[in-house]
Design a protein that fits this description.
Elements lengths: L1 H24 L6 H8 L3 H7 L3 H23 L7 H11 L4 H4 L2 H10 L4 H27 L8 H22 L3 H18 L4
Helix pairs in contact: 1-2, 1-4, 2-3, 4-8, 8-9, 9-10
Length: 199
């Protein structure tokens, strides 16, 4: 049990180091050799835990997922029991604060790899499904507390998730002006709020 915990801890250290090096030189440029050099350990020790870079990428995906879930849990209430708390939650989902938890360059480099790497693709699908479930739990909380009366939460969840995901990509890659970014975000937020049937 102790050995497994030590192994998990060392693997997490490697993933975090991989993430830090990726921020510096780009995910596609990171090799096990320069990762080991960054950590001050041998290449062989890294490969004791990860035989390939692809295996590290799969765990990097999990690391990013955990960071996003931490952002949601730390920035929003556990229960949505008022119109104000639901509106605040939706606004928080469109904030640029996401980038304080995960570097956009690393995330989108990983995202690009899902089109040519089956394992990364499968890992990313799991990532998306878990985030969907976190979002749906907030909507179900709003419904169970009588804040909204929408009958098809699954459909509502898919629409909101797609808007959050798509708008974040657009705003982070195409819009650099803060004022314009805020204006665009408010357009998406107001549209989502119009989808709710408030009690």
């Amino acid at each position: 049990m102790g050995r497994k915990n030590l192994s998990d801890q060392r693997k997490k250290e490697i993933v975090i180091a991989f993430y830090e090096v990726s921020k510096s030189i780009g995910l596609e440029n990171v090799s096990i050799a320069n990762l080991a050099n960054h950590m001050g350990i041998s290449k062989g020790l890294v490969m004791h835990y990860y035989e390939t870079k692809e295996q590290i990428l799969e765990d990097l995906n999990t690391y990013i997922l955990e960071a996003y879930i931490d952002f949601i849990n730390n920035s929003t209430p556990n229960k949505i029991d008022s119109k104000a708390s639901l509106e605040n939650f939706i606004r928080k989902m469109f904030t640029r604060e996401w980038s304080e938890y995960v570097d956009d360059g690393v995330f989108y480099s990983l995202y690009a790899m899902l089109f040519r790497n089956k394992n990364v693709s499968e890992s990313f699908k799991t990532f998306s499904n878990i985030l969907r479930e976190v979002l749906k739990s907030k909507l179900n909380s709003a419904k169970s507390h009588g804040v909204i009366t929408n009958s098809n939460i699954d459909e509502l969840n898919e629409i909101i998730f797609a808007m959050i995901d798509g708008s974040y990509f657009y705003l982070s890659t195409q819009v650099t002006n803060h004022e314009i970014c805020t204006k665009q975000s408010n357009i998406y937020i107001n549209h989502i709020l119009s989808l709710f049937r408030f009690s």
